[in-house]
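FORM 7B - TANDEM STRUCTURE REPORT

SECTION 1: FIRST PROTEIN
SEQUENCE AND C-ALPHA CELLS:
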Amino acid sequence: MAFRQTLFSDVCGTTDELKKRLYEEYDQVASDPDGTLAGLVDDAVYMVGRMHQRLEEYRSLRERVREILASMETIEEVGREKAEEAERAIRQRIQSPQAFEEARAEEVDRAAESIRSVASKQERTLRQYKDQALRLHNAFMQIKGNRPWLVEEEGEGCLIETLRKQYQAWLPPPPHAEHLLDWLSRARAVVSETASPDGQPVVQFEDGGVMPMSQVRWDADIGNFHPASFEPGAAARQYRRKSPQIFHRKGAEDAAKRQG
C-alpha cells in the first residue's frame, strides 16, 4: 500500500478522536464536516486496508502450508522390519565360530546389504522430509519478516539496544523513543522495508497505523502513539465504547446550550 501517515497507531484511537470531535467540537464539525472528519475516516479505512493486506499474507501462508503438508503425504516411507530381520539373520550366523563356519559368507553379505538398502531408502525419505520442512521454514520466515517473534523475554534488552544503535539517527526524543523501542522489541510494531518519501524509516504498528520514525510520539493519557505534528486530547478516550444514549443526551445538552 502507498505510504500514509496516520494520526494514531490504531483504529480505536482514531475512532475515539472522531467521536470527541462529534460531541465536543460540534459547531466546527457542522461548519466543515468533510474537512474535520474525512481525514480520520481515511486513516481508519487505510488501517483496515493494511490489516487486510496482512490477513491476505496469512491466507497465502495457510495455502502454502497445505501444499507442503500434501507433499509430505506423498513421501513413501520404509519400515525397519527388513533391517531387523537381516540383523537377526546375521546374529544367528555370528553367535559362535561354529555357527559362522556353517553359514555361507554370501548369506551374511546379503543380510548386510539388506540393512544397507533399508538405510538408503530412509536417507532418501529423510531428505524429502527435510526439503519440505525447509519450505515450511522459508514460508514462516517470509511471513515473519523482520519482526522479532522468537526473541525471549530476557533477550529483549539486547534487541532494544541493537535497535537503538541501528536507528539512532531517526529515533524520537525520550521518553517517546523508549516506548517505541519497547513496542518494536515485542513486535507490536515493525520498521517497514519501505522508507518514507524523505528517506527515513517508517514505523508500521500491528494495528494498522503508520508514522515516520522521528515523528512518533507516545501519549500516556490516551495510551496511544501519534505524530509530533498532532496533539490529541485526553478526553477522546472517554468516548470509547460509550452507549449511544450518552452521546444523544450530551448532544441534546450541547444543542440546548447553543440555543440558550
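SECTION 2: SECOND PROTEIN
SEQUENCE AND C-ALPHA CELLS:
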Amino acid sequence: MKKLVSRMLPLLGFLFLTAYLRSATVDVVYTDYIRIINSYLPDVFSFTPYLRADILTRTPICYPERILNVVLFGYSTTFDMILGAAGLTLSALIIGMYAYKKKISAAIVAVLMIIIFSLDKWEMLTNGTGWVHFLTFACFYYHYLVYDRVRSGDGKKGDEVRLCVIPIVTVLLISGSYCPIYVGALFAVYLIDYITGYGESVQIKTLVRRLACIIIPFVLFFISYMLSEEEVAGATSESFFTVIAEDPILPVKMILKSFGSMVIGGETAAEWNIPGILVCIFGLIIILGYVYAIYVNFRSGLYKETAFPMLLLFSGLISHGIVFVTRWIFKSDDYMMSSRYALQFQSGILGMILTFTMADTKFVVRPVSAALIILILAGHLCTSGREINMAKYRRESFENMRSVAVNYRNETADTLKSVLQYHDPAKTRHALEILEENGWNVFGN
C-alpha cells in the first residue's frame, strides 16, 4: 500500500497540475520570454549566444530544449509549462521513494505531496521559462537521495560515480543561480559527517573528492556569474546601509514574511487582508520550527540514520538567506512572499516534516510538531484553493495577452509594457516580429 501511495500520488499530482495549467493559461509569450526570444530565437540552432564569459548563467540545458520546442511545437509556452510540471513530479517521486524506503506512513506522504503540488508556486508554473528550475530541484533531491543511501551502507553500484557526476552536470548545465543552495547544503552535511566521524566521509580522500566535485563547478559558475549583466527593473541604487537607515526593521519584516509565506501565500494573505503582523508571527513560528528540527536531528541521533531531512532543512534555510541578500534591493517587505520563491523555500518544510515524523519520540513533542504540520498543511490548502478559484481570471489575463501579442503592431508602448509585462516595449515588438516572421507561438497554426 505504501509503495503504491508513494508512486501514485506524484502521478496524480502531475495530472492535477496539467488540469490547472489548462484552466489557467493560454499559449502566449510574455515577461521573461521577450528577453529569451531576442537573445536566442533569431537563430535557434546557433550556440553563439552562449559562447560568452557568462555561459554558465545561461543554463546550457535550455539550448537543446529550445530547439526541440521550436522544431516540434513552434515555440510553445505550454510545452515549457508541462515540462515544469514534470520536473516537480520528479521531485515528488524522489520524496516518495525516500518515504517508502523509510516506511513513512501514507498519511504523512499525502501531506508531503500536498505541499509539493501546492499552487503557491503558480507564478513559476504559469511562466514556462521556469521549467528548468523545477528540474533543478529534482536533481538536487536525487543527489541527496544517492548520498543518503551511500552513507547508510545501502549504496548501489555506481553511486560513488554518481556523487561526482551529478553535481558537475547540475551546476554547470542546469541549476544556474540556484546552485549556491545545493552546494551550501552538501558542503555543510559533508563537513558535519566528517567532523562527527559518521559514514564514509571520515576518510579524508573521500571527503576531498566529494567536496572537489561540488566546489570546482561552483567556482566556475561564480566566475561566470560575476561576468554577467543582469537586467533588474525596479531595484534601488541605494546602498544597503542607506536603506537600513531609512527603515531599520525592513530586513526583519522581509525575512519573517518570507518564512511566513510557507504558511500562507503572499497573494492569498493580501486578498484576505491578513495583517502583516500575523504573517510575521507565522514566519517566526516557521523559524522556530527550523531550529527545533535541527536540534531534533542532532539530539535524537536522526542524522546518523539519514542525512536526507537535514539536507532539505539546510536547502530551505540557505534559500531564504540568498533571496534576502539578492532581493533587499526592491525595498518591499512583501517581496520575498512572491510565488516565484515558493519552490526553493519548500525544501526546508519537507525536511522539517520528515524530521518530526522519523525522530525518536523522546525528542519530539508530538502535539507541538503535529500543530505545526497542521498549520503548514492548512495554509497550503487555503492558498491552493484560492488559486483554483483564480484560474479562470488568470486565463482571461492570458487571453488578453494573446490578443495584444497578435495585434502588437497597433498597440501602444504602454499597453505592450503593462499587458506583456516586459519593461522595454521596443524589445517586446522585436521579439514578436521574430515570432511572426517564423510563424511561431501566437502566429502559428
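SECTION 3: OBSERVATIONS ON SECOND PROTEIN
The chain has a mean pLDDT of 92.
The first helix runs from residue 2 to 24.

SECTION 4: SIGNATURE
Preparer initials: ____
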